[in-house]
Design brief:
By secondary structure, the chain is of the alpha/beta class. It has helices spanning 74-81, 105-114, 122-125, 132-143, 149-162, 179-191, 209-226, 237-243, 261-266, 271-278, 285-289, 324-335, 355-365, 380-388, 390-402, 406-438; strands at 30-41, 48-59, 63-67, 89-94, 97-98, 115-118, 197-201, 229-234, 246-251, 254-260, 291-292, 310-313, 319-322, 344-345.
Length: 439
């Protein structure tokens, strides 16, 4: 019998986490919930909106994967979950309790204890001055998760062997290891805490192919034996497909599709998802050579004031981002219940693309940032010259702005604004001196 639905957040000032989180209408416990989360870095004109209106739930005991190209905001979301980044809008709930923003110290300690992260860069996340033994044991020390010294040593040795290292490695320092070995130390540091929730940010990207399966099997072992829940961040869709229960696809900081693993690969409805799947390398070099990549073109969408896009459930717990017209098309396509063709191979299931199609695909593949002027460097000399020659600086700023030389424009603007600020200050000082002399 399904439990009564309870998705209301508990008191945001609660000092402790409850034993269980809220459940949905199917009786699944919602461990982590992101609600309309925005993450912005910087202020004013230099502000960068890295994540936009992201909402999704992670259920207890599942592996929820975030996939997308570099710079799409996957790691930013992961770091925000562990409170390393802050939300500029929205909120993050853990077991129904808000953990984003300012929270009590007691709750913060519980979040640290229950949520661990395997960082993408193992070299930067490990203390170079500490031995591997201390790095792995630090969490055990802080929360006293051992009965005595013998118990601590046993836990550390068990986890170090589980990730493919040896007990004698415990006396070494991080700089004595390869990148893959450091990644295993980072994984051991997180898993020795026996956390409820793990943010795994590219946990196998630095590992050899021979050790990847061992690490994934280890993660699945913790999942089966301890009910560990994962937010798995990765680029390799071929691995994500088989380790994930559900997958969220993110593009430029916005979730564009969420579905079960098999559902997503059989019915990739959003064109960006199709482009990611078409880029999965094939083991057969001949097939790979004749594979036709599907290139995503954001201009195919018609998003204006009358057609605002939303993330909508089209059925089968399949969420797709699009306008009302697009959602209707996606829903009709899904209701046919015919798996979509995700790979196109010339001579196997498609014909070679025409010359015009190839040129169009190449034109789409160029990112806007690559079309910016090569000499838009924002050199300090522009600011210096604009300070001493403000009139010419204003003219240059106008011309730079018109031709999209944004960095040069900002440098010139900084120069002539500084000039006028100095002149204003001198006038004030001169006026003050004159007033003093008169008095």
């Amino acid at each position: 019998m399904a439990k009564e639905k309870n998705t209301e957040a508990l008191d945001a000032t609660a000092g402790h986490l409850p034993e269980n989180g809220p459940v949905d209408e199917k009786g699944r416990e919602i461990l982590l919930s992101l609600k309309h989360v925005d993450i912005t870095f910087g202020k004013g004109e230099s502000a960068v909106r890295a994540v936009q209106d992201v909402s999704f739930d992670v259920y207890k005991g599942e592996t929820f994967s975030l996939v997308g190209e570099s710079g799409s905001g996957k790691t930013t979301i992961g770091r925000t979950v562990i409170r390393a980044n802050t939300c500029s809008a929205g909120e993050i709930l853990y077991k129904g309790v808000r953990i984003s923003g300012k929270i009590p110290r007691s709750l913060d300690r519980e979040v640290i204890r229950n949520i661990q992260m395997v960082f993408q860069d193992p070299a930067a996340s490990l203390n170079e001055r500490a031995t591997v033994d201390y790095i792995i044991s630090e969490g055990l020390y802080n929360f006293h998760l051992y009965k005595n010294e013998a118990d601590r040593i046993r836990k550390v040795e068990n986890i170090i062997e589980a990730v493919g290292l040896l007990p004698e490695h415990l006396t070494r320092y991080p700089h004595e290891f390869s990148g893959g070995q450091r990644q295993r130390v980072g994984l051991a540091r997180a898993m020795v805490m026996e956390p409820e929730f793990v943010v795994a940010d590219e946990p196998i990207s630095a590992l050899d192919v021979s050790i990847r399966a061992q690490i994934l099997n280890l993660m699945n072992k913790f999942k089966a034996e301890q009910g560990t829940t994962y937010l798995f961040i990765a680029h390799d869709l071929s691995i994500v497909r088989y380790i994930s229960d559900r997958i969220g696809v993110i593009y430029k900081g916005r979730i564009v599709e969420i579905a079960d693993s098999d559902e997503l690969f059989n019915f990739p409805l959003h064109p960006y998802t199709r482009s990611l799947i078409s880029a999965i390398p094939l083991p057969d070099p001949q097939l790979e050579k004749h594979k036709v990549l599907f290139t995503y073109d954001p201009d195919v969408h018609n998003y204006d004031g009358e057609h605002q896009p939303e993330l909508v459930d089209i059925g089968h717990e399949h969420y797709v981002y699009g306008s009302a017209e697009e959602i209707a098309g996606y829903r009709a396509l899904r209701e046919k219940n015919v798996p979509l063709k995700t790979l196109s191979i010339v001579g196997v299931n498609c014909e070679a693309p025409s010359e015009a199609e190839q040129e169009a695909a190449e034109a789409v593949s160029h990112e806007i940032i690559l079309d910016r002027p090569v000499h838009d460097t924002g050199s300090a000399w522009y600011a210096i010259l604009s300070f001493f020659l403000p009139i010419f600086g204003i003219i240059a700023a106008v011309l730079f702005r018109r031709h999209n030389y944004i960095r040069n424009y900002k440098a010139c603007r900084k120069g002539f604004i500084s000039f006028f600020a100095v002149i204003g200050l001198l006038i004030l000082l001169l006026g003050a001196l004159m007033l003093i002399s008169v008095l």
